[in-house]
Specification:
The protein is of the alpha/beta class. 38% of the residues lie in helices and 10% in strands. The strands form two sheets. It has a seven-stranded mixed beta sheet, with helices on both faces. A two-stranded parallel ribbon has the order 3-9. The relative contact order is 0.22.
């Protein structure tokens, strides 16, 4: 039994770490349906609450300082106050943003700590070249997790993102990629046969664990088949030159990332994307910011430090706003509405406010997606309890076409009808 298990782990390790394994490909435009997409934009430190949340509730909410760049979208977004994952405050809990649970407690939940974006990606599967794409200018938020509890790292360089999304392989590279795909299929075939032998003598506990490994193998097998299908299909072309010629500021580099993700949505390369604003990013080329992002959160509510923190948070929203304006300018073929109307946009964090390390009252914003938006909503129940953020996630799942009525810590759904 031990020998078989070591062989299985070795086989899986080889399959999981091969550099040639990318996600799979996109449909031809002529065959394209009108899809719903998901864009998640997150940061690790939440938002300064007095500047993020409007001062009143309802559709006629006032424009808050941080969200001012999105004033043009006021009637097509929902800001949710008083929602969280009901966790004790402190660092480390922010990794639960898209799952509602921590890796250490995930065993008790059906989806473990699988993040919302990866659940959506699993639903999309081989309909597109890349079931999901993650990008940032640095790693560190840890907000994207696979079904097996493995962190899905973002691509942290705009040029690398361009190569991944839009650069076609040469004839020789495609031949090598095909050879590697066939080799890994052989590895998985061998591992699958070892499972059959090992399961016969395994204990009930080991059978449960090996069933998880088998799930991983089946997902890899599907993934390898999808990649082989799309290997000879060219990717859409994209001109990165305007971004390359500009000064390499944090704004220009993030605009390049957002623009590439937007074009990937438009050409149906992917339908699920995450963009992160990580903790260690240097924002000092933003006017008025002289300290690190993390340093600004330890402000003791000092006026100057709060001003710098809000400048960083407003910068994040401005980058998102630019992206959404471009999505809204693109007419969706074969239907009424823009690309934004068919894209669920979620902005937020697993931390409420970094200045107090609070994990309560998370700063959550939903835009687009064809929803009948509600402005600023107080999500507390009649007893004054905060709403589980996973309730909102169930609503987003259903809009995406995932027929589920629960997700991890959810207790119901958040009322957000679609048009």
């Amino acid at each position: 039994m031990n020998t078989n298990r070591r062989s299985i782990l070795k086989g899986l390790g080889g399959g999981l770490t091969l550099p040639m394994l990318e996600s799979s490909a996109c449909q031809a435009p002529a065959q394209r349906e009108v899809p719903i997409r998901l864009l998640v934009v997150g940061n690790p430190f939440g938002a300064h609450p007095e500047n993020f949340f409007p001062s009143n509730f309802g559709k006629d909410q006032t424009d808050s300082t941080t969200l001012r760049p999105l004033a043009w979208l006021k009637d097509r977004m929902t800001i949710v106050s008083h929602t969280d994952h009901n966790m004790i405050s402190g660092h480390g809990r922010e990794i639960s943003f898209l799952s509602g649970v921590l890796p250490t407690t995930a065993r008790a939940f059906p989806e473990k700590n699988m993040s919302l974006d990866q659940l959506f990606a699993r639903h999309v599967g081989s309909k597109v070249r890349y079931p999901s794409v993650g990008a940032a200018l640095n790693a560190g938020i840890r907000m994207s997790w696979t079904a097996n509890g493995v962190e899905k790292l973002p691509i942290t360089d705009p040029q690398a993102l361009f190569d991944h999304l839009f650069l076609n392989l040469t004839v020789a590279e495609r031949a090598e990629r095909r050879r590697m795909l066939n080799q890994n299929k052989s590895i998985l075939d061998t591992v699958s046969s070892q499972f059959s032998d090992a399961l016969q003598s395994a204990s009930r506990f080991d059978q449960r664990r090996m069933d998880q490994f088998q799930t991983s193998i089946r997902e890899l097998e599907r993934s390898l088949s999808d990649r082989a299908t799309w290997l000879d299909r060219d990717k859409p072309s994209y001109d990165l030159s305007d971004h390359v010629r500009t000064e390499a500021t944090i704004a220009n580099r993030y605009d390049a990332i957002f623009d590439m993700i937007g074009y990937a949505f438009e050409t149906d390369l992917t339908r699920v994307a995450t963009i992160e604003f990580p903790a260690e990013l240097n924002y000092t080329d933003i006017d008025g910011v002289n300290r690190s992002y993390h340093g600004c959160t330890h402000n003791g509510r000092g006026e100057d430090l709060v001003k710098e923190l809000v400048a960083i948070e407003s910068f994040q929203i401005a980058r998102l706003s630019n992206c959404l304006k471009k999505l809204d300018s693109i007419q969706e073929p074969n239907t009424e509405g823009s690309l934004l109307d068919h894209t669920i946009v979620l902005f937020g964090s697993g931390m409420g406010y970094g200045g107090t390390h609070s994990n309560r009252n998370l700063p959550i914003l939903v835009a687009g997606g064809g929803f009948e938006h509600r402005g600023h909503v107080d999500a507390r129940d009649n007893s004054g309890n905060n709403m589980p953020l996973c309730n909102l996630y169930v609503t987003l799942m259903q809009r995406f076409g995932i027929e589920r009525d629960s997700f991890n810590t959810s207790t119901g759904v958040f009322e957000l009808n679609h048009i």
